[in-house]
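Sync notes, pocket subgroup
Present: LS, DG
LS reminded everyone that the earlier model was apo-only. Rerun requested with FE2/S2 (inorganic) cluster included. Inputs:
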Amino acid sequence: MTVTMGSQPNPAGGTVTARGRARITDRTLRTDRWWLAPLVTFLGLTTFVIYGMVRAFMNDYYWVPAYHYLAPFYSPCLSDACVPGSSHFGTPFPDLTPLITPPLFVLPFVLGFRLTCYYYRKAYYRAFWLSPPACAVAEPHQRYTGETRFPLIVQNSHRYFFYSAIPVASVLTYDAVIAFHGDGGGIGVGLGTVVLVINAVLIWSYTLSCHSCRHIMGGRLNHFSRHPVRYWMWTQISKLNARHMQLAWASLISVGLADFYVALVASGAITDPRLFN
Ligand code: FES
Protein backbone atom coordinates (compact mmCIF):
# COMPACT_ATOMS: atom_id res chain seq x y z
CA MET A 1 0.00 0.00 0.00
CA THR A 2 1.26 3.45 -0.90
CA VAL A 3 -0.10 6.65 0.61
CA THR A 4 0.84 10.12 -0.61
CA MET A 5 -0.94 13.43 -0.46
CA GLY A 6 -2.40 14.34 -3.82
CA SER A 7 -1.54 17.80 -5.01
CA GLN A 8 -2.18 17.68 -8.71
CA PRO A 9 -5.40 19.13 -10.18
CA ASN A 10 -8.14 16.69 -10.92
CA PRO A 11 -9.74 17.72 -14.23
CA ALA A 12 -12.23 14.86 -14.04
CA GLY A 13 -13.71 16.31 -10.88
CA GLY A 14 -13.64 12.88 -9.33
CA THR A 15 -14.09 12.07 -5.69
CA VAL A 16 -11.47 9.76 -4.27
CA THR A 17 -8.87 11.24 -6.60
CA ALA A 18 -9.79 14.83 -5.84
CA ARG A 19 -7.11 17.35 -5.04
CA GLY A 20 -6.05 17.29 -1.44
CA ARG A 21 -7.27 13.75 -0.80
CA ALA A 22 -4.84 11.11 0.37
CA ARG A 23 -3.82 9.10 -2.67
CA ILE A 24 -4.15 5.47 -1.67
CA THR A 25 -3.39 2.81 -4.24
CA ASP A 26 -5.45 0.12 -2.48
CA ARG A 27 -9.14 0.16 -3.21
CA THR A 28 -9.83 -0.02 0.50
CA LEU A 29 -8.05 -0.60 3.77
CA ARG A 30 -11.08 -2.29 5.27
CA THR A 31 -10.56 -5.90 6.29
CA ASP A 32 -14.15 -6.71 7.29
CA ARG A 33 -16.77 -8.18 4.95
CA TRP A 34 -17.84 -4.76 3.63
CA TRP A 35 -19.10 -6.37 0.41
CA LEU A 36 -21.75 -8.44 2.20
CA ALA A 37 -24.35 -5.67 2.67
CA PRO A 38 -24.29 -4.45 -0.97
CA LEU A 39 -24.35 -8.06 -2.17
CA VAL A 40 -27.41 -8.91 -0.05
CA THR A 41 -29.07 -5.69 -1.23
CA PHE A 42 -28.30 -6.54 -4.85
CA LEU A 43 -29.73 -10.04 -4.54
CA GLY A 44 -32.79 -8.90 -2.58
CA LEU A 45 -33.76 -6.07 -4.90
CA THR A 46 -33.03 -8.10 -8.04
CA THR A 47 -35.24 -10.94 -6.79
CA PHE A 48 -38.05 -8.50 -6.05
CA VAL A 49 -37.80 -6.79 -9.45
CA ILE A 50 -37.86 -10.13 -11.31
CA TYR A 51 -40.83 -11.36 -9.28
CA GLY A 52 -42.63 -8.03 -9.81
CA MET A 53 -42.15 -8.14 -13.57
CA VAL A 54 -43.33 -11.74 -13.83
CA ARG A 55 -46.42 -10.93 -11.76
CA ALA A 56 -47.20 -7.70 -13.56
CA PHE A 57 -47.32 -9.40 -16.93
CA MET A 58 -48.92 -12.61 -15.68
CA ASN A 59 -52.25 -10.75 -15.52
CA ASP A 60 -53.93 -13.60 -13.70
CA TYR A 61 -54.43 -15.13 -10.25
CA TYR A 62 -54.92 -11.90 -8.31
CA TRP A 63 -58.50 -12.09 -7.06
CA VAL A 64 -60.09 -14.70 -4.78
CA PRO A 65 -63.85 -14.02 -4.99
CA ALA A 66 -64.80 -16.40 -2.17
CA TYR A 67 -62.76 -14.51 0.44
CA HIS A 68 -62.35 -11.12 -1.28
CA TYR A 69 -58.57 -11.38 -1.38
CA LEU A 70 -56.95 -8.98 -3.83
CA ALA A 71 -53.24 -9.35 -4.53
CA PRO A 72 -51.35 -6.15 -3.56
CA PHE A 73 -49.61 -5.92 -6.94
CA TYR A 74 -53.04 -5.59 -8.58
CA SER A 75 -54.44 -3.11 -6.10
CA PRO A 76 -56.16 -0.91 -6.90
CA CYS A 77 -57.35 -2.63 -10.09
CA LEU A 78 -58.38 0.26 -12.30
CA SER A 79 -58.68 -1.05 -15.84
CA ASP A 80 -61.40 -2.71 -17.89
CA ALA A 81 -59.09 -5.72 -18.02
CA CYS A 82 -59.62 -6.42 -14.29
CA VAL A 83 -61.54 -9.59 -13.49
CA PRO A 84 -65.12 -9.05 -12.24
CA GLY A 85 -65.31 -8.09 -8.57
CA SER A 86 -61.69 -6.95 -8.27
CA SER A 87 -62.22 -3.27 -9.13
CA HIS A 88 -63.30 -1.54 -5.95
CA PHE A 89 -62.67 1.98 -7.20
CA GLY A 90 -64.04 1.83 -10.74
CA THR A 91 -62.23 1.25 -14.01
CA PRO A 92 -61.17 4.63 -15.40
CA PHE A 93 -58.62 3.02 -17.74
CA PRO A 94 -59.36 0.94 -20.86
CA ASP A 95 -58.22 -2.61 -21.42
CA LEU A 96 -54.75 -2.21 -22.91
CA THR A 97 -53.54 -5.75 -22.28
CA PRO A 98 -51.28 -7.50 -23.02
CA LEU A 99 -49.05 -4.44 -23.43
CA ILE A 100 -50.26 -2.57 -20.35
CA THR A 101 -51.63 -4.78 -17.61
CA PRO A 102 -53.62 -3.38 -14.62
CA PRO A 103 -50.62 -3.05 -12.24
CA LEU A 104 -48.81 -0.76 -14.67
CA PHE A 105 -51.32 2.06 -14.08
CA VAL A 106 -50.34 2.25 -10.41
CA LEU A 107 -46.71 1.16 -10.69
CA PRO A 108 -45.23 4.65 -11.43
CA PHE A 109 -46.42 5.92 -8.04
CA VAL A 110 -45.41 2.86 -6.02
CA LEU A 111 -42.08 2.55 -7.79
CA GLY A 112 -41.43 6.29 -7.67
CA PHE A 113 -41.92 6.31 -3.91
CA ARG A 114 -39.49 3.44 -3.34
CA LEU A 115 -36.92 4.53 -5.92
CA THR A 116 -36.66 8.07 -4.54
CA CYS A 117 -36.69 6.91 -0.88
CA TYR A 118 -33.63 8.16 0.98
CA TYR A 119 -32.81 4.67 2.25
CA TYR A 120 -33.27 2.86 -1.06
CA ARG A 121 -31.16 5.49 -2.80
CA LYS A 122 -28.28 4.67 -0.49
CA ALA A 123 -28.94 0.96 -0.95
CA TYR A 124 -29.02 0.83 -4.72
CA TYR A 125 -26.33 3.46 -5.26
CA ARG A 126 -24.09 1.12 -3.31
CA ALA A 127 -25.32 -2.24 -4.57
CA PHE A 128 -25.87 -1.48 -8.27
CA TRP A 129 -23.72 1.55 -9.09
CA LEU A 130 -20.97 0.91 -6.53
CA SER A 131 -21.01 4.62 -5.86
CA PRO A 132 -19.42 3.88 -3.48
CA PRO A 133 -20.00 0.19 -2.64
CA ALA A 134 -19.35 0.88 1.07
CA CYS A 135 -17.85 3.44 3.41
CA ALA A 136 -14.13 3.88 2.84
CA VAL A 137 -14.18 1.78 -0.33
CA ALA A 138 -13.21 3.59 -3.51
CA GLU A 139 -15.81 3.72 -6.22
CA PRO A 140 -14.89 2.79 -9.78
CA HIS A 141 -16.31 5.98 -11.29
CA GLN A 142 -14.18 8.94 -12.24
CA ARG A 143 -16.91 11.52 -12.06
CA TYR A 144 -19.54 12.33 -9.49
CA THR A 145 -22.21 14.88 -10.24
CA GLY A 146 -24.53 13.90 -7.41
CA GLU A 147 -28.21 14.66 -7.48
CA THR A 148 -27.85 18.20 -8.76
CA ARG A 149 -28.61 17.55 -12.42
CA PHE A 150 -30.72 15.28 -14.63
CA PRO A 151 -31.50 12.43 -14.19
CA LEU A 152 -30.77 12.19 -10.47
CA ILE A 153 -32.19 15.61 -9.69
CA VAL A 154 -35.56 13.84 -10.03
CA GLN A 155 -34.78 12.25 -6.66
CA ASN A 156 -35.80 15.56 -5.11
CA SER A 157 -39.41 14.80 -6.02
CA HIS A 158 -39.59 12.28 -3.19
CA ARG A 159 -41.92 14.45 -1.12
CA TYR A 160 -44.53 14.33 -3.90
CA PHE A 161 -44.24 10.58 -4.20
CA PHE A 162 -44.83 10.46 -0.47
CA TYR A 163 -48.17 12.21 -1.03
CA SER A 164 -49.08 9.57 -3.63
CA ALA A 165 -48.10 6.79 -1.21
CA ILE A 166 -50.84 7.78 1.24
CA PRO A 167 -53.73 6.72 -1.05
CA VAL A 168 -51.84 3.55 -1.98
CA ALA A 169 -51.49 2.59 1.71
CA SER A 170 -55.14 3.49 2.25
CA VAL A 171 -56.22 1.20 -0.57
CA LEU A 172 -54.17 -1.69 0.85
CA THR A 173 -55.89 -1.07 4.19
CA TYR A 174 -59.24 -1.25 2.43
CA ASP A 175 -58.15 -4.56 0.88
CA ALA A 176 -57.26 -5.89 4.33
CA VAL A 177 -60.66 -4.87 5.72
CA ILE A 178 -62.69 -6.50 2.94
CA ALA A 179 -60.57 -9.65 3.34
CA PHE A 180 -62.60 -10.34 6.51
CA HIS A 181 -65.06 -12.07 4.24
CA GLY A 182 -66.45 -15.52 4.70
CA ASP A 183 -67.14 -18.05 2.00
CA GLY A 184 -70.78 -17.56 1.04
CA GLY A 185 -71.00 -14.16 2.77
CA GLY A 186 -70.69 -12.76 6.28
CA ILE A 187 -67.55 -12.28 8.24
CA GLY A 188 -64.71 -14.73 7.94
CA VAL A 189 -61.04 -14.91 8.73
CA GLY A 190 -58.44 -16.96 6.95
CA LEU A 191 -54.67 -16.99 6.76
CA GLY A 192 -54.99 -14.64 3.78
CA THR A 193 -56.80 -12.11 5.97
CA VAL A 194 -53.93 -12.17 8.45
CA VAL A 195 -51.35 -11.85 5.66
CA LEU A 196 -53.11 -8.81 4.15
CA VAL A 197 -53.54 -7.12 7.55
CA ILE A 198 -49.85 -7.56 8.40
CA ASN A 199 -48.95 -6.22 4.98
CA ALA A 200 -51.13 -3.11 5.45
CA VAL A 201 -49.58 -2.43 8.88
CA LEU A 202 -46.05 -2.74 7.50
CA ILE A 203 -46.82 -0.57 4.46
CA TRP A 204 -48.22 2.15 6.76
CA SER A 205 -45.24 1.85 9.09
CA TYR A 206 -42.81 2.26 6.21
CA THR A 207 -44.81 5.13 4.69
CA LEU A 208 -45.12 7.06 7.96
CA SER A 209 -41.45 6.50 8.81
CA CYS A 210 -40.53 8.42 5.64
CA HIS A 211 -38.07 11.29 6.13
CA SER A 212 -40.34 13.57 4.11
CA CYS A 213 -43.27 12.69 6.37
CA ARG A 214 -41.16 13.55 9.42
CA HIS A 215 -40.20 16.87 7.90
CA ILE A 216 -43.76 17.68 6.88
CA MET A 217 -44.87 16.99 10.45
CA GLY A 218 -42.19 18.82 12.40
CA GLY A 219 -40.00 20.70 9.96
CA ARG A 220 -39.82 24.49 9.71
CA LEU A 221 -41.19 24.96 13.21
CA ASN A 222 -39.38 27.47 15.39
CA HIS A 223 -41.26 26.58 18.55
CA PHE A 224 -42.47 23.05 19.20
CA SER A 225 -44.25 24.35 22.30
CA ARG A 226 -46.65 26.32 20.12
CA HIS A 227 -47.54 23.24 18.05
CA PRO A 228 -48.10 20.44 20.60
CA VAL A 229 -50.04 18.19 18.21
CA ARG A 230 -47.47 18.44 15.44
CA TYR A 231 -44.72 17.96 18.02
CA TRP A 232 -46.36 14.81 19.32
CA MET A 233 -46.80 13.42 15.81
CA TRP A 234 -43.23 14.36 14.90
CA THR A 235 -42.03 12.52 18.01
CA GLN A 236 -43.92 9.35 17.07
CA ILE A 237 -42.80 9.52 13.45
CA SER A 238 -39.21 10.06 14.59
CA LYS A 239 -39.36 6.74 16.46
CA LEU A 240 -40.52 4.99 13.30
CA ASN A 241 -38.00 6.93 11.24
CA ALA A 242 -35.17 5.45 13.31
CA ARG A 243 -36.25 2.05 11.91
CA HIS A 244 -36.75 3.21 8.34
CA MET A 245 -34.29 0.77 6.78
CA GLN A 246 -35.80 -2.21 8.60
CA LEU A 247 -39.31 -1.08 7.67
CA ALA A 248 -38.27 -0.61 4.04
CA TRP A 249 -37.18 -4.25 3.86
CA ALA A 250 -40.01 -5.62 6.00
CA SER A 251 -42.68 -3.90 3.88
CA LEU A 252 -40.98 -4.92 0.62
CA ILE A 253 -40.85 -8.54 1.70
CA SER A 254 -44.40 -8.47 3.09
CA VAL A 255 -45.90 -6.99 -0.07
CA GLY A 256 -44.13 -9.63 -2.17
CA LEU A 257 -45.17 -12.47 0.11
CA ALA A 258 -48.77 -11.23 0.38
CA ASP A 259 -49.00 -11.03 -3.40
CA PHE A 260 -47.50 -14.50 -3.77
CA TYR A 261 -49.87 -15.94 -1.18
CA VAL A 262 -52.96 -14.54 -2.91
CA ALA A 263 -51.62 -15.81 -6.25
CA LEU A 264 -51.26 -19.31 -4.80
CA VAL A 265 -54.81 -19.29 -3.42
CA ALA A 266 -56.30 -17.70 -6.56
CA SER A 267 -54.62 -20.25 -8.81
CA GLY A 268 -55.84 -23.16 -6.69
CA ALA A 269 -52.27 -24.24 -5.86
CA ILE A 270 -53.13 -24.10 -2.15
CA THR A 271 -56.28 -23.82 -0.04
CA ASP A 272 -56.59 -20.91 2.35
CA PRO A 273 -56.64 -22.24 5.95
CA ARG A 274 -59.71 -20.71 7.61
CA LEU A 275 -59.91 -19.65 11.24
CA PHE A 276 -63.67 -19.39 10.81
CA ASN A 277 -66.14 -19.23 7.95
S1 FES B 1 -37.32 8.47 2.87
FE1 FES B 1 -37.81 6.41 2.53
S2 FES B 1 -39.90 6.51 2.02
FE2 FES B 1 -39.37 8.61 2.30
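DG: Residues 117-119, 158, 162, 210-212, 244 surround FE2/S2 (inorganic) cluster (CB under 6 Å).
LS: The beta strands are 3-5, 22-24, 63-64, 69-70, 189-190, 274-276.
Action: DG to write up.
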